[in-house]
């Protein structure tokens, strides 16, 4: 546990005096602050020292001392007037710094913004969109490889250092010969052409049960209605959560299979359009969890814990509505959309899935713009390159924005004198449609280096799906930076993105949770790298053509009033603004205090529920168990984040080494929220606040609910163990943020 606040502040003030160059420093600290004369000591010679000579010598000494004092005062006064790190790190409206020492002369931030706006143009974006649009570029196919070659060729044209990253991954594809099938009651056999990669294979037969969107709350409502869900075949609507989450939720209630259909209220795509996707409750190659799928590796055969053990299959709108109309049984809950029956035991259906497991060679493509000061620290900007079909909104737009950002920023460096402090890595991922496979395999291959050196990840997948709304999902560390970008990037000539989409309360209007099926999610929850994803959209529902063969430019034009190039430019400016800010400034603009509120809200919930369980089920949790230690760990993080903020405010931008040390402390925050007590094989998303699994604070809250209701799945000893682990994970994050080991006092 961190020392009491007063002691910590006293220590901090002492360190600040040493590191600053103020005139109040004691003379004995550092030779550069010593104003004593460095000349050899005067040894008097044998001579006559008359009073006149002695007076002359005394006057000379006094004069030298006065001149030395004045020179020292002026030097230190100038340093005191130099801008402080707080100007760069904490105040977004006053961040322009006029000068910098070191290898990279600092360009004024307003000039950087202006240059990016000049370079990213609608005409150039439209041209690249035409060059990088493809009708067939499924992962590992010749079309995917050809598109990757186009991207790396452009990177080379821009003068960037390039390389590729090859992986051999296992994926599921639909049967090459044969088919998947469903038979409802005594009706005709249906052969859906869509499929869900990583489904279990085989045949299941059971009664259909309609489960709305397949969310946890949907199954809770069915349970509260005392409906038997054992061995039922769940019929659920697509949307709201990922396919993988729907199947995982169904598996928890002992369903035998899941059928997913696009309801016409959410997906106006016609009766016969097929859906494609995956149901791995994770990311990356599920047959090499926690390590990369390099060729000829000798890792023992193992499977991800996120692979489902039940069948999963997509069906068309026509198939789904046909089944719904024939269901009997009870009426659905009033809170669900539509008027449907849930199904009874006589509504039997047979589901057969025959997907085949294949190995594919994929290549990620990279280009880098190297920094001029901290070249070994970098911001990563990435976009998925592959798609099930045309994938125009899913991948073509993001890939085009990636290439245009690389061109624009390279040109700024080459021709306009912009010198980023840190490096920028541009990544084109393959096998994104199978669950961010290319991106995750890269993370697994170089995790120890990336978690220490990658400053942030910016995701460009699916960034244009409409024009009437704007959503951002990001690590809390990046929220203030996101807000600043919203203020400074224009939506049109008269309005910024913030004034257009989030004028009153931008957080409630624009921020949304980061979804597990986003490529930014493994960067954040698996690797502990602050990440951001964003999108222009048309409404509350998802873009209906994702995962279909209808994801074309024509259909995207229909929901954007043919403004795709213009919206892509705005998306590029938003992503570019965040990236350039992170490589331009002396100190990383990450708001350490944003996590305080999130931690505190979880702590309040857990404490309240612990007391409720002790009152209602006293035999499960003894009175000696309290949330005191969790509260203290939360307080430690709050205290240390405040102290580091004070360190920043009193630091000197001219001290390159000091700024690097502070940045390194900031970069530890996200990765230290990864629980060290769980295996990435069993729980890859180890982030205790934003991850997924029994180690998270959300899971602790759910566990307390189960204890309160005396659920058979509840385990009091397991809860106490997980609570202790989560508590120490927060405390360890605070310890790391504090910096020096002598600043710690962890006596609970």
From TrEMBL:
Residues 364-565 form the Peptidase M28 domain. Stearoylated. It comes from the Eukaryota. GO terms for cellular component: external side of plasma membrane; melanosome. Pfam families: PA (PF02225), Peptidase_M28 (PF04389), TFR_dimer (PF04253). Residues 194-271 form the PA domain. The keyword Cell membrane applies. GO terms for molecular function: transferrin receptor activity. One of its GO terms (biological process) is receptor internalization. CDD domains: M28_TfR, PA_TfR. Its main location: membrane. It is found in: Cell membrane; Melanosome. It is a single-pass type II membrane protein. Keywords: Cell membrane, Disulfide bond, Endocytosis, Glycoprotein, Lipoprotein, Membrane, Palmitate, Phosphoprotein, Receptor, Signal-anchor, Transmembrane, Transmembrane helix. Residues 655-737 form the Transferrin receptor-like dimerisation domain. The chain crosses the membrane at residues 53-75. Homodimer; disulfide-linked. Cellular uptake of iron occurs via receptor-mediated endocytosis of ligand-occupied transferrin receptor into specialized endosomes. Endosomal acidification leads to iron release. The apotransferrin-receptor complex is then recycled to the cell surface with a return to neutral pH and the concomitant loss of affinity of apotransferrin for its receptor. Transferrin receptor is necessary for development of erythrocytes and the nervous system. Acts as a lipid sensor that regulates mitochondrial fusion by regulating activation of the JNK pathway. Belongs to the peptidase M28 family. M28B subfamily. This is Transferrin receptor protein 1. It comes from Astatotilapia calliptera.
